[in-house]
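Reopening this ticket.

The earlier resolution said the output was attached, but the attachment link was broken on my side. Pasting everything inline this time so it's all in one place.
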Amino acid sequence: MKLSIVIPARNEEGNIGSTLTLLRDHLVSAGVTNFEILVVDDGSRDRTGEVVLEHAAADDRIRVIRNTGRNGYGRAVATGLNNFTGDAVVIYMADASDDPADVVRYYHILRDEADCAFGSRFLRASRVYDYPRFKLIINRIANFAIRLMFNLHYNDTTNAFKGYRRHVIEGCRPFVSPHFNLTIEIPLKAIVRGYTYKTLPITWRNRTVGESALKLKEQGSRYLYTLLTVWFEYLLVRHDTYRTDSGIFEPWQPPQPEELEPIPSSEK
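Inline output:
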């Protein structure tokens, strides 16, 4: 199985080089050699793109593309999901807040066990370092509401770090969330549409360089919009959107009209 790692990056010059090195070296040391790391430069005003190009010149498994349209975390991730070449994809943060060892664990789940790999920072075996207290409170309230609305046991839907087989990504289109609300759109659609998933404890560390692009005051209404959109699908039309594939996604094709034999002139 070829694994793609999509990394949206905006003004991450101080992080992206070490993130790429750490991720690549850990994958190789774990025996995962068939992979690509696809960085999406989301309108950076620093040397983020140039740093990735330097790494790509030394390792052709590293690629960089630019989001030339409107910027936003969701738009950058969607650009990566339109261009990855693997059989499965993991969405990873440019600041390396997630552990590369967990990417390897995702790989094995996606290869052998389930359509989706969903990590949680809030299981007994999870490890979380320096999570801002206010964001933690908001996170737990939001995830509790999501669990009630969708009758879930999974407790970290808002976490961006997740993995999907290719047919899940295709089966969850179209993506409509342009910002961080995409972090709940994809997993909730995957759950509502019947794709299998496995949860596991993961490690998370707060960034030490730069500033997070997530601004809670700006994102609240966007998260609510996405949450309600998928919830209404869950309540009202999930039988229309439920998966119809058997594990390997086949692109939708319009039904071909039945050819009718012309009526003989004697029968008209």
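Reporter confirms the inline version is readable. The CA atoms of residues 28 and 120 lie 24 Å apart. Residues 3-267 form a domain with the Spore Coat Polysaccharide Biosynthesis Protein SpsA; Chain A fold (CATH 3.90.550.10).
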